[in-house]
Amino acid sequence: MAEIIQVQGCTKTFRANGVETQALRGVDLTVNDGELMMLVGPSGCGKTTLISILAGILAHDGGAVRVLGEDLGAMPAAQLPAFRRRNLGFVFQAFNLIPALDVLDNISIPLILNGVKRAEALERADDLATRVGLRDRRHHRPTQLSGGQQQRVAIARALVHDPRLVVCDEPTSALDHHTGEVVMEMLRSIALKPGRGLVIVTHDSRIFPYADRIATMDDGRIVSLKSQETAP
User: Fold this and answer.
1) What contacts 19, CB < 8 A, 6 or more positions away?
2) How far is C-alpha 40 from the geometric centre of its chain's CA atoms?
3) What pTM was estimated for this model as a whole?
4) Tell me: the pLDDT tens digits for 96-116?
5) Under a CB-based contact definition with an 8 Å cutoff, are residues 63 and 8 in contact?
6) Distance (Å, rounded) from C-alpha 62 to C-alpha 106?
């Protein structure tokens, strides 16, 4: 079985004002082709740090991290943005929408950055806006949307360029149960495609059944790894 992600002995330490905080203490993790992996555990255990490293947003201190066959530790920093643009979709917990842009423009950003013509980018963005239930809000700006609606925009933006790896930080935290199910079906469809994977950080036990495996983290380590059938 092909591996989308291979992490071996990954460590990460943050330093501020003379204080060191060891966020990751030797993480080992593999995500397979077509797999939806969930990361769970208490706040502050290293989940967001780990997915930020997988997405090439943070650099790890030690160990090895390979994503889509690329050694992120060996990749020049100047090449990382292009690698992310082509291959990754990231759903931030804080949404990170651009206030001056409406829903369609926010969703279309990854396509524009990858050289897709604006008319085609907006057409594809409109399709995804409809699929996440925002067709009647597609010309609204983020300040005119609820938290749940902003989260759906962020999810659509992460999916619009059909990335090979989608990484999500609490994608259903601001959604009602029905909308959460719609979003998870969309996200799950990404992982079912050949050569793709999906990693989700969540505290939302309602979505555990969508996972293939669930990795539990604590104190910067993965302490258990269970298949969906035996997940909590």
Assistant:
1) none
2) 14
3) 0.91
4) 999 999 999 999 999 999 999
5) yes
6) 35
What is the 8-class DSSP label of residue 67? E
Please tell me what DSSP assigns to residue 183: H
Q: Supply the range of the domain harboring residue 53.
A: 3-230
Give the DSSP letter of residue 137: G
Token digits of residue 187: 């996200």
> Quick one: CA dihedral 18, 218, 7, 169, positive or negative?
negative
Tokens 């397979």 sit on residue: 32
For 225, list phi and psi in degrees, rounded to 5: -140, 115
State how far the Cα of 94 lies from the Cα of 113, in Å rounded to an integer.
21
Each residue's pLDDT tens digit, 20-63: 999 999 999 999 999 999 999 999 999 999 999 999 999 999 99
For 39-51, give the DSSP string: EE-STTSSHHHHH
What separation in angstroms does the CA of 69 have from each of 97, 103, 145, 206, 216?
30, 33, 38, 32, 25
At which residue do the structure tokens 């050694």 appear? 71
Can you give the CATH number for the domain in which 33 is found? 3.40.50.300
Rounded CA-CA distance 149/155 in Å is: 10
